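Take a look at the protein record below and flag anything odd:
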Amino acid sequence: MLACVLVLVAAFALRELYLEHWLGRSICIRRQRKGLTTVEVRRRVAMERLPSSVSDYPVPREERILVKRLAGVVLWHREVSVGLPLSACDHLQDVTAQEFDRAFPSWLRLKGAN
């Protein structure tokens, strides 16, 4: 029984380390706190490789991630990715969150759903 509990705790800790590393490559653009719970919207802009049936080459994409935390621990996340125009390849680091904000659902936008 103790071994099962230790395995579950280790799995949970490894998941948290992995998610923190993965989310560390994104930027938080919106955060709302209520008590111990936090809801964040994070963004990442990069060249992504799509399945070969879609494209043989990486394409510019912006990804937004909705993250729900309890006492700082990630409980849940959901990602949405949209394609950027090929002209964005030349200045990926300069793409602002406002430029393609309307391409995302309202719950992932800078101001959020009302």
In short: The longest strand covers residues 37-48.
